[in-house]
Amino acid sequence: QVQLVESGGGLVQAGGSLRLSCAASGIKSRIYIMAWYRQAPGKQRELVATITSGGTTNYGDSVKGRFTISRDNGKNTVYLQMNSLKPEDTAVYYCNVLDVQGTASWGQGTQVTVSS
User: Fold this and answer.
1) pLDDT of residue 51
2) What is the pLDDT of residue 29?
């Protein structure tokens, strides 16, 4: 079965940094896109960043210039480096994998809390 395990969340002060990791296993088809989403209390889940198997990246407007997504294809792992964190970045962050057949898989999420 597909498993996505996120790690690296925690509590950090505004202006600080965190790096999230997501390790994927059990993927049967070739991965097309890996992504990070987040959901804050009372708000919709929003797209944070995506990266293709070829390394092309895209970012949501709210994190552009502060966050960097990267991947290690050999390890089937995607990372999210988060710098200059703001209280409004507080959310549960979810890893998402889309394979070439269009099947999406989700991790359980990791909590990021940014204090002011």
Assistant:
1) 96
2) 79
Residue pointed to by tokens 């949501």 = 60
pLDDT category, 95, cuts 50, 70, 90?
very high
Is the pLDDT assigned to residue 2 strictly greater than 90? no
Quote the CA–CA distance of 112 and 115 in Å, as a whole number.
10
Q: Which residues contact 24 (CB under 8 A, 6 or more apart)?
A: 2, 3, 4, 31, 34, 76, 77, 78, 95, 97, 105
Chain center to CA of 81:
9
Q: How many CA atoms lie within 13 A of 81 on its CB side?
A: 6
